[in-house]
């Protein structure tokens, strides 16, 4: 059987872990925003899903953002773009982000994910 999966595997955090999000651009214009609280729900080498109370109006704006998180021994900052938004409850939104990781960040993420898998803190979805 041939595997035709074109996307990296996603890893769901059990339980989801706290992180911070910082908006870096809106419609390709740089902005200086403060860090906002969020929850990391799942992650892969290509992207992640977070939950926050921020309403970014992604359908009308191109949003660049950085996710600040602590998966392994060190804190990491991953830059990317918000691809989609979904309201999941009154005042809570899920966002899908496409991450732009360099080779070193991808390797560190792999190390962190292997550590979390060994600790049974993530599952493949």
Automatic annotation (TrEMBL):
<protein>
    <submittedName>
        <fullName>PilZ domain-containing protein</fullName>
    </submittedName>
</protein>
<dbReference type="Pfam" id="PF07238">
    <property type="entry name" value="PilZ"/>
</dbReference>
<dbReference type="InterPro" id="IPR009875">
    <property type="entry name" value="PilZ_domain"/>
</dbReference>
<feature type="domain" description="PilZ">
    <location>
        <begin position="30"/>
        <end position="109"/>
    </location>
</feature>
